[in-house]
């Protein structure tokens, strides 16, 4: 198998120069190629309730070169999904009157791009990151609104291979989020590929009343 050969060859290089760092990166890359290639499709428990101390940890890495997204319903908001790998973090958060994508890469300070839209209204909303290859750009989608997060002249670091395909990253859904999340592309809730903490997999138990008062969870 092609991956296998490359993996062994790189591993041999690694042993020769004694760099564990390279090993980690190659291992992560092999993981992303090996596990991330096949889309899983919908699971048999697509909807989940998060109470603010819940989260889902996905054991499969995500690729920002393919559509990644989910739907959510909340009056409170919080983090929808995030990934973290070494010194790279990326968060997508529903806040009062906006959805924000923030990221840190290497020694760079945290940057963020927001899309102004009220989503803390107890109605279902769609959020996604969509990669457009030509010309390269990463877009934030909230319902039918779109906002450029990165392109060749603006936040280009997010379009680097390491950021788009952070194989081996820790991917969390619904961390510090209160409300319901319906799975979406690359963020599926298959029992064999997620570790869930305090998550209730069920039809959204929230009432469909209007929100009493909206306030957002602040996450930095
Ligand atoms: C998004 O959809 C809503 C309702 O379907 C519509 O009223 C609105 O004009 C649309 N916005 C854009 C930017 O297409
Ligand atoms: C990149 O995005 C910014 C902000 O939307 C825009 O002003 C700029 O024209 C874009 N650059 C390219 C090359 O598309
Ligand atoms: C969330 O649910 C878990 C398990 O049912 C419970 O232990 C925890 O206290 C709850 N947290 C909040 C903030 O309600």
Automatic annotation (TrEMBL):
Keyword set includes Transit peptide: no
Keyword Membrane: yes
InterPro entries per UniProt: ConA-like_dom_sf, Laminin_G
All residue ranges annotated as the Laminin G domain in the record: 45-211
Superkingdom per UniProt: Eukaryota
Alphabetical UniProt keywords: Membrane, Transmembrane, Transmembrane helix
Membrane-crossing residue ranges in chain numbering: 20-37
Name assigned to this protein: Laminin G domain-containing protein
Organism from which the protein derives: Diatraea saccharalis (sugarcane borer)
